[in-house]
Design brief:
By secondary structure, this protein is mainly α. Helices cover 62% and strands 0% of the residues. Helix 7 (152-160) packs parallel to helix 9 and helix 8 packs parallel to helix 10. The model is unreliable at 1-31, 51-58 and 89-105 (pLDDT under 50).
Length: 585
């Protein structure tokens, strides 16, 4: 437990909302508020201080509370943008939402011409006329997400001058436009030794988003120069973390360049121990993403590291690597009851991604365990990632068990990943039942959005209309689920959430859901919000959210590229550049 206490402060910092500081005095900026796990609930368990002589006052944290901040929800919420969009739960392949027969025809779906004619002009007008910093930042973010070369000039201008937040958004935006002019502008920021570290770090990630070998060569040379025992001090570490992360975004042609460098640097920096932890965690994540067999010994060795954050990073990266030979090491780690609980949970995720018969057998054995919440819940999610349809009956049994709702939420999502039609009625009942935990009900909705049972959409829309409780957890999940369904009948509900919701997490999921729909009808309605001559007195920030929604509506059928930058990373360790990226989704 002492080790858990030492990690707790760093963890709270890692999952709290990102805040932009800087010369312009801006704190929280843009349309933030995406749910990042039950941090308020966990922190509340520690609200009573320790009593004299040791221990905690009556009613203070229990053993369950200490396990609480290792809960699966944190992993899910940070990874879900990739998980819900990709075919295999790890790569950039987008599972394109198919519109139902009752929904709109193909003519309603957004294409490049529609983006150019309707979305770009609305965003450009904001930048030409508005002085609202949040609104301008949201418009710049959306210009980048559209991926249109027509936005390069505006983004380049904003990357060179303006508020810190506007510059950061413009830099990210340039990275999402695959064009030589965008690359040149980003290189100018990255190579400027007099530029702010956070902007150079942002440029490193942006340059790497398309994974080109020539860019990786530049980044590798910079990592060679910067990642040394003598130079890894102060805020410069942030830049090294960003470059190390960026190398993991390279395509297969860059492996022979990046993998030996990362392996060697991990070994060199190991001598710094704790002081190099953040950089080594980023390097381990990149090794996993690059998926080269030569990195396997380094990753396996890191799994046994005495530093739990290194072990956690390795546990995640071994699954990302795709190396089936990693299974024996992961199985041995999972079987060690004395090993770090969070790392064992991460090992379950990796075993699911690797999906060998031995891995699946071990995960099935874990889902019925009652020794902790952490391992069974992660094991269920691992089985979902593995598309292990044979485990559906056992997962259903736990879903129906009158056990902790926190545990049942993971099983609901696992059944959603399996597209298990047999669980549809159970999930609908959980959603509609007011006696269940609100987060469980929200996760049941998301699972239904993955399964898309016949008649389910009508039932969920009817529930949304009659629900009087309007609990945040329920409607956060409901908004995302309706977007995943791919049916334009969900648009009125989503637009209502976008315009009128006071809870930012519900609004953020509504934006994401509208992006999954990518409907012209939705764009027209959002543009009407932007064109309003007077601000909404009840919800004055609605134009900012509308501007952010336009970027989601116009994005291509791929994962927003920067989601992949922090996918599979040990989020338990604070990394300012990656925290900022997480807040963009």
């Amino acid at each position: 437990m002492k080790r858990s206490l030492l990690c707790f402060g760093a963890f709270v910092a890692a999952v709290s909302p990102a805040w932009a500081g800087g010369d312009d005095g801006v704190k929280q900026v843009g349309p933030r508020g995406q749910y990042r796990g039950p941090i308020d609930e966990v922190v509340a368990a520690f609200s009573l201080g320790p009593k004299p002589g040791g221990g905690f006052a009556p009613g203070g944290p229990s053993e369950d509370a200490f396990e609480g901040y290792e809960r699966w929800e944190f992993w899910w919420e940070i990874q879900k943008d990739v998980l819900l969009r990709s075919l295999d739960g790890s790569r950039r392949d987008f599972l394109d939402t198919q519109q139902s027969e009752a929904g709109a025809s193909g003519t309603d779906v957004v294409d490049a011409a529609y983006v150019r004619e309707h979305i770009l002009p609305a965003l450009k007008e904001i930048l030409a006329k508005s002085t609202d910093r949040d609104l301008r930042s949201a418009a710049l973010a959306s210009l980048g997400r559209l991926g249109s070369p027509e936005a390069i000039e505006l983004l380049t201008k904003s990357a060179e001058a303006g508020s810190l937040e506007e510059r950061r958004q413009a830099i990210l935006g340039l990275g999402q436009i695959d064009h030589p002019r965008a690359t040149i502008a980003l290189l100018g920021v990255f190579r400027d030794e007099h530029e702010r570290i956070e902007l150079r770090s942002q440029a490193a990630i942006a340059l790497a988003l398309y994974g080109k070998r020539e860019i990786m060569r530049i980044l590798a040379a910079e990592l060679e120069a910067q990642a040394t025992i003598e130079r890894l001090v102060g805020e410069r570490e942030q830049l090294v973390v960003a470059i190390a992360t960026a190398l993991g975004l390279g395509d297969s042609s860059s492996r022979t360049l990046s993998v030996p460098l990362l392996v060697r640097k991990i070994d060199e920096l190991g001598r710094l121990e704790v002081r190099s932890r953040g950089v080594r965690v980023a390097m381990l994540a990149s090794l996993g993403k690059l998926g080269d067999a030569s990195a396997l010994p380094t990753l396996v060795e890191a799994l046994g590291d005495a530093d739990v954050e290194i072990a956690r990073a390795a546990a995640l990266s071994l699954g990302e690597s795709g190396a089936k030979d990693a299974v024996p090491a992961l199985l041995a780690f999972l079987a060690d009851d004395g090993a770090d609980l969070q790392a064992r949970g991460f090992a379950c995720i990796s075993l699911g991604k690797l999906g060998t018969p031995e891995a699946l057998e071990a995960l099935r054995a874990q889902i019925s365990s009652r020794r902790s919440r952490t391992v069974p819940s992660f094991a269920a999610l691992g089985l979902g990632l593995a598309r292990d349809y044979a485990s559906a009956p056992a997962l259903r049994e736990v879903l129906l068990r009158k056990s902790e709702d926190q545990l049942r939420g993971a099983f609901a999502l696992a059944l959603g990943m399996l597209r298990d039609q047999a669980s549809s009625e159970h999930l609908l009942t959980i959603l509609e039942r007011g006696t269940c935990d609100e987060d469980l009900r929200g996760y049941a909705a998301i699972a239904l959005g993955m399964i898309r049972p016949v008649g389910g959409l009508e039932r969920m829309l009817a529930f949304a209309q009659r629900d009087r409780s309007h609990l945040e957890g329920v409607h956060r999940g409901l908004a995302l689920a309706l977007g995943m369904w791919g049916d334009v009948r969900a648009i009125p509900y989503l637009l209502s959430a976008l315009r009128e919701e006071s809870r930012m997490s519900v609004r953020a999921n509504a934006i994401q859901a509208l992006g999954l729909l990518r409907s012209r009808k939705a764009i027209d309605a959002v543009c009407e919000v932007l064109a309003a001559s007077t601000p909404n007195r009840k919800h004055p920030e609605e134009r900012t959210y509308a501007a952010a929604a336009l970027g989601a509506l116009g994005q291509k059928s791929t994962v927003p590229l920067y989601s992949y930058a922090f996918y599979g990373v040990n989020y338990r360790l604070r990394s300012p550049v990656l925290e900022y990226l997480m807040q963009q989704i």
